[in-house]
């Protein structure tokens, strides 16, 4: 009986960070250069598409800095939530909800008193949809005897200057590091090394991995695809098998991205999925109508169109949907939406 191909799933996990991150030597050197001297009071803006290694490189490069905190802004998307996360990581104590924002700001000033601190704000675009500008302005003007440096990471914007107020950018003045998408060959080599650690010998056909990396150079999506292919066969992973499980693999990847979002995000995404099968072009009115039908099916109370518009923007930032904006007319700004795929 053939041996199942998956012997150790760990190297195929998205939170697995190899000691050597290939094809990012220049980015690593640039990041080290920013924090190589004794001062951490420098600000950095890192941008690049999903799955290009921005977060992994940041964690690996800054691992020797003792006083740092990491905030995933897709989970903590307001100044209040982000400040709580920063304080909890710096103090090691749970921060309740009974504080005013100014109280949290004052506590942070006290905590960073004489300590040099690096604050990493990943997926900064979600924070900037709300009051992220206010947080950045506060952090760049915060007066302490210690030094504070900011690392801002974006998957959607190459230029931060147009996303924040002029006074905030003037205080921030970040150095910028761009992560270009991997080539198909680079993605192939990265996933191959993970596969060699995770799979049994001779269990992955080259054509199968070539098909995956020719289809997507997003390493995170590729890992979900390869892992799902390994989990759904008891023999060799072939090209035809990777093709057969492509849609299911993307569902797992999308589920990973949506795992900490609300049930209404998932219903909204399901509405887009169903409409995408039926139509070539989807407008927001169709999405809201289908969403309301799904809420009735699952016995959920519907949210306002304004709130759902914010959630559609979240799906767009996650690169799960693509939106084309139209301005003018009786309805003002409207969106034509289509489903993203591997």
Number of strand elements? 8
Mean pLDDT: 92
Low-confidence stretches: none
For the largest beta sheet, what order do the strands appear in spatially?
A: 2-3-4-1-5
Span of the ends, CA to CA: 33 Å
Helix content: 40-55%
**CATH topology of the largest domain, what is it called?**
Rossmann fold
What's the story with the biggest beta sheet? Answer: 5 strands, parallel
**Structural class label:** alpha/beta
Please explain how this structure is put together.
The protein has 342 residues and is an alpha/beta fold. It has 3 domains: 25-178, P-loop containing nucleotide triphosphate hydrolases (Rossmann fold, 3-Layer(aba) Sandwich), CATH 3.40.50.300; 182-255; 263-339, Orthogonal Bundle (Arc Repressor Mutant, subunit A). It contains 15 helices and 8 strands. The chain has helices at 25-34, 54-61, 79-91, 101-111, 124-128, 132-141, 166-172, 184-198, 206-215, 219-231, 239-244, 246-258, 263-278, 284-297, 305-317, and strands at residues 43-47, 68-72, 117-122, 148-154, 175-178, 282-283, 321-326, 334-339. Strands 2-3-4-1-5 form a 5-stranded parallel beta sheet, sandwiched between helices. Strands 6-8-7 form a 3-stranded antiparallel beta sheet. Helix 8 packs across helix 10 (219-231), helix 10 packs across helix 12 and helix 13 (263-278) packs across helix 14. The longest helix has 16 residues, at 263-278. The radius of gyration is 22 Å and the shape is globular. The mean pLDDT is 92.
């Amino acid at each position: 009986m053939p041996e199942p191909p998956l012997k150790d799933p760990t190297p195929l996990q998205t939170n697995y960070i190899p000691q050597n991150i290939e094809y990012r030597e220049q980015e690593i050197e640039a990041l080290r250069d920013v924090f190589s001297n004794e001062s951490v009071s420098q600000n950095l803006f890192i941008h690049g598409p999903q799955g290009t290694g921005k977060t992994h490189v940041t964690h690996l490069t800054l691992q020797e800095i003792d006083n740092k905190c990491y905030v995933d802004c897709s989970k903590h998307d307001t100044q209040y939530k982000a400040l709580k996360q920063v304080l909890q990581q710096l103090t090691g104590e749970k921060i309740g909800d009974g504080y005013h924002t100014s109280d949290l700001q004052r506590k942070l000033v006290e905590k960073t008193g004489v300590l040099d601190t690096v604050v990493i704000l990943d997926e900064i675009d979600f924070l900037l949809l709300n009051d992220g500008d206010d947080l950045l302005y506060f952090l760049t003007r915060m007066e302490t005897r210690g030094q504070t440096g900011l690392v801002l990471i974006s998957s959607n914007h190459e230029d931060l200057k147009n996303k924040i107020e002029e006074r905030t950018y003037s205080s921030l003045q970040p150095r910028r590091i761009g992560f270009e998408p991997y080539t198909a060959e680079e993605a192939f080599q990265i996933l191959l090394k993970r596969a060699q650690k995770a799979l049994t010998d001779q269990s992955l056909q080259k054509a199968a991995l070539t098909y995956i990396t020719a289809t997507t150079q997003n390493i995170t999506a590729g890992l979900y695809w390869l892992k799902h292919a390994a989990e759904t066969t008891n023999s060799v992973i072939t090209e035809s098998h990777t093709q057969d499980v492509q849609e299911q693999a993307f569902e797992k990847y999308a589920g990973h991205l949506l795992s900490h979002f609300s049930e209404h995000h998932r219903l909204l995404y399901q509405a887009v999925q169903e409409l995408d099968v039926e139509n070539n072009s989807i407008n927001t009115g169709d999405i809201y109508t289908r969403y309301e039908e799904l809420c009735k099916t699952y016995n959920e109370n519907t949210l306002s169109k304004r709130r759902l518009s914010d959630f559609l923007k979240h799906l767009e930032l996650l690169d799960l949907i693509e939106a084309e904006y139209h301005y003018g007319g009786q309805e003002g700004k409207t969106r034509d939406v289509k489903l993203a795929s591997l």
